[in-house]
Amino acid sequence: MLQTINDILSFLLELVALFLYSLWAYRVPHSLFKKYLLVILAIVMFALVWGLFFSPKAKYPISGSLGWLLKFCVLFIPFIPFANELPVLVITMAVITFLNLWVQSLK
């Protein structure tokens, strides 16, 4: 039961990270065409990195402490720009991400 809830939480964390990377790309000051191109590029890059290295069926899985640390960074970095406005949210998401990855490591 705990693993199922954690898998759902993992998926939600991935979606939120994808959304925040896309939001960052959208907020970069460029022309409208370049803005949407950058958003698409951010989505593709996140999906590519996640699919190749971090997904359950990754072609080149990174395991161990390095894999755990990199996965934490990929999921947590998009929250950092909110540190000044919403520090409690950023700390909460760091703890949730940490606990989520810790429970995954128990499998």
UniProtKB/TrEMBL annotation:
<feature type="transmembrane region" description="Helical">
    <location>
        <begin position="36"/>
        <end position="53"/>
    </location>
</feature>
<protein>
    <submittedName>
        <fullName>YrdB family protein</fullName>
    </submittedName>
</protein>
<dbReference type="Pfam" id="PF10823">
    <property type="entry name" value="DUF2568"/>
</dbReference>
<keyword id="KW-1133">Transmembrane helix</keyword>
<keyword id="KW-0472">Membrane</keyword>
<feature type="transmembrane region" description="Helical">
    <location>
        <begin position="7"/>
        <end position="24"/>
    </location>
</feature>
<keyword id="KW-0812">Transmembrane</keyword>
<feature type="transmembrane region" description="Helical">
    <location>
        <begin position="60"/>
        <end position="80"/>
    </location>
</feature>
<dbReference type="InterPro" id="IPR021214">
    <property type="entry name" value="DUF2568"/>
</dbReference>
<feature type="transmembrane region" description="Helical">
    <location>
        <begin position="86"/>
        <end position="103"/>
    </location>
</feature>
